[in-house]
Design goal:
The chain crosses the membrane at residues 39-60, 66-84. The chain is an all-alpha fold. It is built from four helices and no strands. It folds into two domains: 1-31; 33-99.
Protein backbone atom coordinates (compact mmCIF):
# COMPACT_ATOMS: atom_id res chain seq x y z
CA UNK A 1 0.00 0.00 0.00
CA UNK A 2 1.29 3.43 -0.89
CA UNK A 3 1.59 6.20 1.66
CA UNK A 4 -1.18 8.80 1.69
CA UNK A 5 1.05 11.44 0.07
CA UNK A 6 1.88 9.18 -2.89
CA UNK A 7 -1.74 8.12 -3.36
CA UNK A 8 -2.92 11.72 -3.41
CA UNK A 9 -0.17 12.65 -5.89
CA UNK A 10 -1.18 9.78 -8.18
CA UNK A 11 -4.85 10.75 -7.90
CA UNK A 12 -3.96 14.32 -8.87
CA UNK A 13 -1.96 13.13 -11.89
CA UNK A 14 -4.89 10.91 -12.92
CA UNK A 15 -7.33 13.81 -12.69
CA UNK A 16 -5.05 16.08 -14.73
CA UNK A 17 -4.64 13.38 -17.37
CA UNK A 18 -8.39 12.81 -17.56
CA UNK A 19 -8.96 16.54 -17.95
CA UNK A 20 -6.29 17.03 -20.62
CA UNK A 21 -6.88 13.90 -22.72
CA UNK A 22 -10.06 12.00 -21.85
CA UNK A 23 -9.72 9.46 -24.68
CA UNK A 24 -6.23 8.46 -23.58
CA UNK A 25 -7.35 8.25 -19.95
CA UNK A 26 -10.28 6.04 -20.95
CA UNK A 27 -7.94 3.75 -22.90
CA UNK A 28 -5.68 3.45 -19.87
CA UNK A 29 -8.56 2.74 -17.53
CA UNK A 30 -9.42 -0.42 -19.51
CA UNK A 31 -6.05 -1.87 -18.53
CA UNK A 32 -3.90 -4.29 -20.47
CA UNK A 33 -5.45 -6.79 -22.84
CA UNK A 34 -6.07 -10.20 -21.29
CA UNK A 35 -3.03 -12.43 -21.04
CA UNK A 36 -4.77 -15.00 -23.25
CA UNK A 37 -5.06 -12.60 -26.21
CA UNK A 38 -1.45 -11.48 -25.74
CA UNK A 39 -0.36 -15.12 -25.73
CA UNK A 40 -2.25 -15.75 -28.97
CA UNK A 41 -0.71 -12.66 -30.54
CA UNK A 42 2.84 -13.68 -29.59
CA UNK A 43 2.23 -17.25 -30.75
CA UNK A 44 0.92 -16.07 -34.12
CA UNK A 45 3.86 -13.71 -34.63
CA UNK A 46 6.31 -16.53 -33.87
CA UNK A 47 4.45 -18.82 -36.26
CA UNK A 48 4.58 -16.09 -38.93
CA UNK A 49 8.33 -15.80 -38.50
CA UNK A 50 8.75 -19.57 -38.64
CA UNK A 51 6.74 -19.82 -41.87
CA UNK A 52 8.67 -16.94 -43.41
CA UNK A 53 11.99 -18.54 -42.49
CA UNK A 54 10.82 -21.87 -43.90
CA UNK A 55 9.96 -20.20 -47.21
CA UNK A 56 13.21 -18.23 -47.38
CA UNK A 57 15.47 -21.12 -46.39
CA UNK A 58 13.52 -23.48 -48.64
CA UNK A 59 14.11 -21.17 -51.60
CA UNK A 60 17.76 -20.45 -50.84
CA UNK A 61 18.77 -24.06 -50.14
CA UNK A 62 16.57 -25.65 -52.78
CA UNK A 63 14.74 -27.75 -50.19
CA UNK A 64 11.30 -28.10 -51.76
CA UNK A 65 9.73 -29.70 -48.69
CA UNK A 66 10.75 -26.84 -46.42
CA UNK A 67 9.44 -24.29 -48.91
CA UNK A 68 6.13 -26.12 -49.36
CA UNK A 69 5.52 -26.46 -45.61
CA UNK A 70 6.08 -22.74 -45.19
CA UNK A 71 3.88 -22.01 -48.19
CA UNK A 72 1.08 -24.28 -46.88
CA UNK A 73 1.28 -22.69 -43.41
CA UNK A 74 0.72 -19.19 -44.78
CA UNK A 75 -3.05 -19.43 -45.52
CA UNK A 76 -3.63 -21.11 -42.15
CA UNK A 77 -1.82 -18.27 -40.41
CA UNK A 78 -3.82 -15.66 -42.33
CA UNK A 79 -7.01 -17.44 -41.23
CA UNK A 80 -5.80 -17.55 -37.60
CA UNK A 81 -4.97 -13.82 -37.65
CA UNK A 82 -8.45 -13.01 -38.97
CA UNK A 83 -10.14 -15.13 -36.30
CA UNK A 84 -8.11 -13.57 -33.47
CA UNK A 85 -8.77 -10.06 -34.82
CA UNK A 86 -12.48 -10.81 -35.14
CA UNK A 87 -12.67 -12.05 -31.55
CA UNK A 88 -10.71 -9.03 -30.33
CA UNK A 89 -13.11 -6.67 -32.12
CA UNK A 90 -16.12 -8.51 -30.66
CA UNK A 91 -14.65 -8.24 -27.15
CA UNK A 92 -14.02 -4.52 -27.67
CA UNK A 93 -17.58 -3.96 -28.90
CA UNK A 94 -18.98 -5.90 -25.91
CA UNK A 95 -16.89 -3.80 -23.53
CA UNK A 96 -18.11 -0.59 -25.18
CA UNK A 97 -21.73 -1.76 -25.05
CA UNK A 98 -21.33 -2.70 -21.39
CA UNK A 99 -20.09 0.77 -20.49
CA UNK A 100 -22.97 2.56 -22.24
Amino acid sequence: MLPHHDRSALRKIEEELAASDPEFAAALSHGAPPARSRLWFVTLILADLAALLMIVFGLTTGDTGLFLWGFVATPALVWAHRIVRQHTQEDTQEDAAGES
